[in-house]
Prior knowledge:
By secondary structure, the chain is α/β, with parallel strands linked by helices. Helix content is 37%, strand content 23%. β7, α6 (187-202) and β8 (207-210) form a beta-alpha-beta unit.
Amino acid sequence: MTGPPHPAPVLAxxxxxxxxxxxTVLDGIDLDVTRGEVLVVIGASGSGKTTLLRCVNALVxxxxxxxxxxGVEVAYTAPGSGARRGDRALARxxxxxxxxxxxxxxFPHLTARQNxxxxxxxxxxxxxxxxxxxxxxxxxxxxxxDRMDHLPSQLSGGQQQRVGIARALAMEPKLLLLDEITSAxxxxxxxxxxxxxxxxxxxxxxxxxxxxxxAFARDAGHRVVFMDAGRIAExxxxxxxxxxxxxxxxxxxxxxxxxxxx
Length: 262
C-alpha cells in the first residue's frame, strides 16, 4: 500500500550547472521547495549560494539543467533548449518570484510607498491609486505604517530592508528569494528584519533563503542545505544538519560562524 502522494514542488531545480569561464560555480544542483516551506541555504563565501538564487530568478543564464516554477521552465523555453525567453515572457515569470537582495536597491528620490508601488504599476499594470493602496498594505504588514511617505534617506537600514521585503511581497509571488538580507545591517537592526521573515514563515510563505543567521535557520527553517564548492554537501532538518553535522567541512564552517558571533 502506497502512502499519500508528495505535493508537487513550487520550485524544482535539476542538474543545475553554472560556469564563469573555466570556473564551475554550480556543479549539478538538485533541490525542491514545496508550498509553504522555508528552505535555508548555508555555506562559506564562494560556495555558490548567491549564484543559485540569481539563476532561479533568471538574473544570470546557466549552462545546463532545469529550473521550473510550478512546472514552468523559468529562463528558457524548454529544458536544455538554450533558447532564452524573451524579455516580456521573462518579466511575467519573474513577477512570480520575489527577490530581496543584500543591498536595499531603493530609488532614493521615491518614498517607501512609491518604491513599493512602482513594480505594481510597471509589471502588474495597476493604476496609481490601487498600486499605492496595495503598497500601503504591505508596508503596514512589515511594520512601516508610519514610515510610508519617508524617503530612503530618512529610514534606518533595517527599515529600508523592510521596504525591500514589502516591495517583493506586494507582487504576491509564488516564491520569495532572500539573499543575505541582514548582511548589510548593523547587528542591532538584524532582529527587526528577521522578525518580519519569521512572520512570513508562520503565514505560509514559500521561501528560499541564503543566510549566515544560524539561530534563524534552526528556528524558522523547515530544511537546511549546506553548499560547498558548488554542490549540496548536506541536506536535512535544521536539527540534524546544524546539530549533528556529518562532514568535517560543515563542522569547520559552523565553528567559524560560532566564533564570529561570540
